[in-house]
Amino acid sequence: MLYSLGGFGMPFYVVGLVTTLVALTLLFLVPKNTEVSDEEARPIIDKEEVKTEGKSLSLIDVVKRPLLMVPFLDALTCFTADGMVEAMLEPHLKNEAHASQGQVAVTFLILGSTYAFAFPLAGFVSRFPSHTGTLSFLFNFFPKLGDRLREHAVVLSIVGNLLVSLSMVFIGPLPIFALQPTPQLIYGSVAMAGTGYSLIGVSSFTRGFHTAISMGFADNMRTNLIVSGMIV
Asked: What pTM value is reported for the model?
């Protein structure tokens, strides 16, 4: 879209300006780091170590345990699909759907926007208590599904993978459907894909982390970093 309005350089000028403004804003919003002496920090560290007793998780531990590998393979499949879509979507839009440069830009904007908005929502749902009146009206029509979504992150993964699969079916679309590829059809497909990516990402981290804890590994920053690092 910016390319259509101002040529090749316009997207870089706009993104660079916005990034600079965000960086300057963070200087005023991020609180200053308060220095703490070793004597003051020691009781806090001791208390944290007591709370997080357990084995220390390593990458070898993850590879050796199939239950820990499943969430990461799920995330790997998800991001492989994302890489394929992003690599081949633009030529497909131009050659098959006869989309303009602006429509190509809108397609990628929809993909990123749905991912960004659905990710925190998926995180909220995965941690939502199963017995509460808050927002319960959202699950009135499907109460059992609502409970499963709130209690089991694996259901988020199933829904996410179904959405990604449907998006692949209609981005083409498959020859068995009497449909012609159009920008509007692809808009809806990438919206499903972006939502599916977010559900799979949240589910993979949640399952990986809780599986590690259930196997006796420590509930600490190291476990958190290894699980999140392998997914991201």
From this structure: 0.72
Cα–Cα dist 213/136, whole Å: 29
Q: Which two tokens stand for residue 172?
A: 């083409």
| Cα–Cα distance measured from residue 88 to residue 1, given in angstroms and rounded to the nearest whole number | 19
Number of domains the chain is built from: 1
In a domain? residue 37: no
Element (H, E) at 200: helix 183-214
Residue 222, both tokens: 């190291």
Is 31 among the domain residues?
Answer: no
Query: What's phi and psi for 55, nearest 5 deg?
Result: -70, 155
- Is residue 207 domain-resident? yes
Q: What is the pLDDT of residues 52-61, one digit of tens each?
A: 567 788 888 8
Domain extent, residue 151, equals 58-231
Helix residue spans in 96-175 (DSSP H): 101-126, 143-151, 153-171
Query: Where residue 182 sits, what CATH number does that domain have?
Result: 1.20.1250
The tokens of 20 are what? 């600079």
Give a yes or no: residue 48 inside a domain. Answer: no
pLDDT digit string (tens) for 74-124? Answer: 888 888 888 888 888 999 999 999 998 888 888 998 998 999 999 888 887
